Amino acid sequence: MNTDENLSKIFGTDLNNDNVVLNVPAIQTEQNTDIIVSTDGEKDSAVDYDADYARSKMVGIIDVGEEAIDLAGKIASESMHPRALEVMSQLLKTQGDNIDRILKIQRDRREIKKINGNNTPERVSSSSNVNVANAVFIGSTSELLKRLKGIGAE
Q1: What range does the domain containing 59 cover?
Q2: Which of 28, 71, 123, 143 is the most exposed place for a label (fewest CB within 10 A)?
Q3: Is pTM, for the whole model, over 0.90?
């Protein structure tokens, strides 16, 4: 008996039958295609939810990082191997970066709430810088010159 015959015997199939029909149920997935229009209150709650979710994930990462730092510290102190010390210092740096990310989440949340409350991003902070990489003016050259002269007069 060859391999094909053995497999046919195990799976209970006919080796000579080319018309094999499998009764596999179709997988049906539901897709939500509803358009959700949110009001200002819902925007704030979505911002809060997203910020809280991101913050909770970062706190979890920081907690795991603390455990990793403890373990790496034990390994580094026992072995005094340069690579173990390097890993320990890298973990400390990463942990500091993660803490900065939590603070950034809080800052971003406040800025978004200010934008949603005022509907004008210019009022968010005076230190916000906007860099425009590709600006396109649609109009005639005379209109462009008038606008540029108007900006220069201010």
Answers
A1: 40-116
A2: 28
A3: no
